[in-house]
Amino acid sequence: MTKTDSIYLDKKEKNTETKNQFLTFKLENELYGLLLEKAKEIIKPPKITNVPNTQKHVMGVINIRGKVTPVIDLKEKLGLPQNADNEKYNKIIIINIQGIMVGLYIDEVREVVSINSDDIEKTTEGDRSLEDEYIRGVFTSKDSLIVIINIEEILFDKSDKSEEVKNA
Predict the structure, then answer these.
(1) For burial by CB atoms within 10 Å, which of 57, 107, 116, 125 has the most?
(2) For residue 57, what is the domain's CATH number?
(3) Domain-located, residue 1
(4) Distance between CA atoms of residues 156 and 90, nearest Å
């Protein structure tokens, strides 16, 4: 898959093995992956409307075909540095989590990779700065390390799994 301005993600390819497809993207110099089945679309960032009195990681809302969709700055949410190196590659990944459409503002979309579940390694303490519940594991691909994230844990507070995004 190559970089495009706006694409719909095709998930029709099925495999009988225990392989999952992951959409990979960059935040700073790190490569991350999320389950492709969660991603619905990738778009160029449109004008984001600020929403007062929201958490710092909530950038605002956008209109996606008549639906108001909150946009989360994933770097801010994960506590990563906010460097604006090259905004021309920034994208928003539209995901559907628990029936709620959410946009994830990221640095750059990379590719879709198929990974066998057995090849995802658990992290050890000190491997990453992200909290353990945010990470499903890591996968080494070619010369890159892909951090497989648990997007539900990142977006939803454990005490109330739907309030944070609903209040965005």
Answers:
(1) 107
(2) 2.40.50.180
(3) no
(4) 23
